[in-house]
Each structure stands twice: as structure tokens, then as C-alpha cells.
Write a structure and sequence with these properties.
This protein is of the alpha+beta class and about 180 residues long. The protein is built from 5 helices and 5 strands, in the order αααββαββαβ. The strands form 2 sheets. The protein has a 3-stranded mixed sheet. The chain has a two-stranded antiparallel sheet with strand order 1-2. The chain is elongated.
């Protein structure tokens, strides 16, 4: 959602800036050319006469109104759903709120997992509800390695004052070692 918001914000901003420039051009043109009835860039007066004859019951008007309302609602939902997800920690006092970014917790867990013997590399993704670890081990890795990695992640989460403990999922892939 954040990527969609980052794409929509400049597009909407450019559209509003273009509309503003058109309005400024038309206002200045109306001041300088008082006798002329047509607009310089946009035919406002022709649009006005056409719109004066349109009522709310005419076929395109309700459809356009519904489409604009749905588009506005979608933009509001995109804005609300694009919030950052923070991981809440217990503060030193009840009135103090402490949060951390999921990326920070992922780095801490990744370092702990990579320090495990027989782990070649690890990739960690963290959300407020789930920690996913994808670890790669050499082909001669121990069978209990997945439990060892899961235990190391649990130890790391126990050391932190997390307000809500996320679920842990560990996936282990075997990688061919050097021959």
C-alpha cells in the first residue's frame, strides 16, 4: 500500500498543480481581455452553458457522481492502510510508549541466526504478528538444526521487552557446500 501511495501522491499533486496553473492563466486572461467571452485555454463559457442544461436525473450525472465517490473512498482507504507497522515494546513506565521498526528486529534476529553453527545465510522478515526466518545450511547440516534456529530466535525474543510476542516460523533450506 505504501508503494501505491508513493505513486499516487505525485500524480495527484501534478494534476492539482496543472489545474492551478490553468486557473491562474484563465483569471489573468479574463482581467486583461475584458471584452472577450471565451477562455484563453479552456472554453469555460461553453462548458457553463452546457452544464446549465444538465440536471441530476440526466444519464451521465449519477454515474459520474458514484464514480467520483468510489474513487474518493478508495483514496481514503489507501491512505489509511498505508501506515507504517511498528513493533511495540514495553516502556520503562506505563505512560511511555516505545516502538521499533520491524527492520531493526529483523537485523537483530538475523545476526543471531547467522551466528548459529552450520548456517550459511539467513533472511528474516518481521511484522508485528509474525517473524519468518529463511535459513540456508550446508547439505551436511544436523537434523535438529531447525529446532536450534527456532530456539535461538525464541531466546532473542525473550530478551526483548515485547508488548506482544510474534509467532515464529523457521524454514530451512539445504545448500550444496564447496566440493
Amino acid at each position: 500500500m505504501r508503494m501505491l501511495l508513493r505513486l499516487l501522491a505525485p500524480l495527484i499533486g501534478l494534476a492539482m498543480a496543472a489545474a492551478g496553473v490553468l486557473i491562474v492563466i484563465e483569471v489573468i486572461a479574463a482581467w486583461l481581455r475584458r471584452n472577450v467571452v471565451t477562455g484563453l485555454v479552456v472554453p469555460w463559457h461553453h462548458w457553463r452553458t452546457a452544464i446549465e442544461n444538465v440536471t441530476w436525473e440526466d444519464p451521465p450525472v449519477p454515474g459520474i457522481a458514484i464514480a467520483v465517490a468510489v474513487l474518493g473512498l478508495l483514496l481514503v482507504l489507501v491512505g489509511l492502510l498505508a501506515r507504517r507497522s511498528h513493533i511495540t515494546l514495553d516502556g520503562p513506565a506505563p505512560e511511555i510508549t516505545v516502538v521499533t521498526a520491524p527492520r531493526v528486529l529483523a537485523r537483530l534476529i538475523g545476526r543471531r541466526v547467522r551466528s548459529t553453527e552450520d548456517i550459511f545465510s539467513a533472511s528474516v522478515t518481521v511484522s508485528p504478528r509474525k517473524v519468518s526466518v529463511l535459513a540456508q545450511a550446508f547439505d551436511e547440516a544436523r537434523p535438529e538444526l531447525r529446532d536450534t534456529v527456532h530456539g535461538r530466535v525464541d531466546e532473542m525474543l525473550d530478551e526483548l521487552p515485547l508488548h506482544r510476542r510474534p509467532r515464529v516460523a523457521v524454514h530451512l533450506q539445504e545448500r550444496q557446500g564447496p566440493r
